[in-house]
Every structure is written in structure tokens, then in C-alpha cells.
Amino acid sequence: MPQLRFGLALGGGGARGFAHLGILQRLEEIGIRPDIITGASMGALVAATYIKSGTAALALQELNSLIESEAFKKLGMHLINVTGRGGESFWHQVSSAIQDRIIINLAHSKPGLVREDRMAEVMELIITEDIWSQADQMLGIVATDLYSGEDVYFTEGPLLPAVTASMAIPGFLPPVQHDGRTLVDGGVSQQVPIRLARKMGADFVLAVDVGQDVRPIAPMDNAMAIASQSENIRSCHYRDMLNREADVLLLPEMPGVHWSAYDQRDTFIELGIQAFDTQQVTLEKAWYQTKHPLLGRLKGLF
Q1: Which of 10-19, 104-113, 259-268, 278-287 has the lowest mean pLDDT?
Q2: pTM for this one?
Q3: pLDDT tens digits for 204-250?
């Protein structure tokens, strides 16, 4: 009987994706080594770094160095976080209003708020080799075709454009032109790449969703916030439908945390660990029953 393959699908969520490292750490501790790891957006970067590094600890070390680099700081993540910027004084409010106007004006004239060369400088610091498999672990990455809306799967070839495309947050990072396609964030079409893991041969899929939940992270007192929250509701309904295709789903609790809060990455790792610990018994039981269906049913009876 062929050996069954354990798949791990890591979803997008910006800085919240550091929770994936806590989950990878826990999987190592209980002796489960995923055969297939798929990623969308930040999940793609974590997955690619983990495949290259071989351990959660080494992947974290590389990602921390990236976040602390001057190239990453130049991306200006603080500009996109619309919550908690203001303060109560009149001048804080005026400053926030001016900043919002600058962002709106840029959004009308550019494909992304961040320049393509700055994003390339960041990605080249960490994606230095085309490593799609290591020690019998396979990597898969999903991006989204901006014109057709199709999932675009990467399992071989140049790794840098694949990860960059998967992380191209619409409006913030520019689309990636690759093989005649215009590609954006994989999370647009497949927030958690469960289907890619299945396509790559996973018999069992543990999915990790670190996306924003349906609760708003900003006051609903302006048109942009209301439109954004409405789109978030639509996205959450679609995401929930896709998440049902996983064998086990982990949902780290992160209410009210914006995706750009990279200064909270240690907290996100701990939240990932907590989510894993809550579901560990369920996970081990489900994986055992997948590997040993008859024994699993008999064990359930007694």
C-alpha cells in the first residue's frame, strides 16, 4: 500500500502569517513532517522559506532578518494600516487625513502603492534559490490571474516570480507579469490553498487560515471603511466554503489585528501554537484514521 501524503495548506494574512511558524514548530515536536506544503500570499513566503531552511526555527530566523532589513522598512507598511494611527489631538487627525488623501491620489495613478523595484529588492533577500522540494517535501504556490480570475499553480520553475505574484496584494503591491499573465495575490481566489494541496497528491490536508475574520478592524464611520467591510464579508463567506474541503482546519484567534502589524509577529507565533494545541487531539485522530481506516473505526467503537 502506498504511503499516504500529509498536506499542509498555509493561507494568506500578512504579518498574521507568522502564526504558521508556530504550527510548523508544533508539527515538528509531534513528529509530523508534511509531505506537501502549499501557500498563498504570506503563506507562500513562509512555505518557501521553510522548504529551503528545513526547520521552523531556521525559517523564523530568515524571516525575522527580512522584516528587520532596510529594504523591508522602505516598503512603508505603516501607510496601509488605517487603524490606530491617529491619536486624539487635532493635529494627529489632520495628519491622518492628509495621509489618506495622498494614498488615494497614488491609487488612481499607479498599479500599487509600493514601487515594483522596492518589492523586488525585498524578495531577492530571501528567495535566493529555486527550491521546490527538499528532503521529500514538495512546495506549491498559488497566485490569481487578474483577468480570468483563475487560480495559477506553481510547483516548479523560477521561484522568485511565483512567490512575488502570490504576495501581490491588490492595490498595495503591483501585479506580476509572468508567462503572458497578469498575476496578483493568491489569496484573492484561494485564501487557503487546500485545492492545490489535493492536486499535488495530498491524501490529508491540515489547513491554516490566518485571514481577517468577519469582525471589522476599523470604525464603520466612512465610505471606505463600509465598502471594505462589505467586501470582507463576501470574502469570508467564500473562504468558509473552501475551508470545508480541509480534513482539519486551524483558525488562530486574531480579532482586530491588521495584516501589516509585523511588529506583533512574536504574538502571532504564539497564537498559532495555541490554535494547534487546541486541535492537536483532533488532528492526530483524523490523521491516524486516514492512515488506518479500519483500525480507526474499530478504535472508535471501543
Answers
A1: 104-113
A2: 0.84
A3: 999 999 987 767 666 777 776 677 677 777 777 777 788 899 999 99
Phi, psi torsion values for 251, nearest 5 degrees: -125, 85
How many Cα atoms occupy the beta-carbon half-sphere of 193 within 13 Å? 36
Q: How far apart are CA 167 and CA 184, in angstroms?
A: 7
CA distances from 36 to 2, 53, 161 (A): 16, 15, 20
R_g of the chain, CA atoms, integer Å: 20
* HEC secondary structure over the chain: CCCCCEEEEECCCHHHHHHHHHHHHHHHHCCCCCCEEEEECHHHHHHHHHHHHCCHHHHHHHHHHHHCCHHHHCCCHHHCCCCCCCCCCHHHHHHHHHHHHHHHHHHHHCCECCCHHHHHHHHHHHCCCCCCEECCEEEEEEEEECCCCCEEEECCCCHHHHHHHHCCCCECCCCEEECCEEEECHHHCCCCCHHHHHHCCCCEEEEECCCCCCCCCCCCCCHHHHHHHHHHHHHHHHHHHHHCCCCEEECCCCCCCCCCCHHHHHHHHHHHHHHHHHHHHHHHHHHHHHHCHHHHHHHHHC
Does 76 have pLDDT greater than 90? no
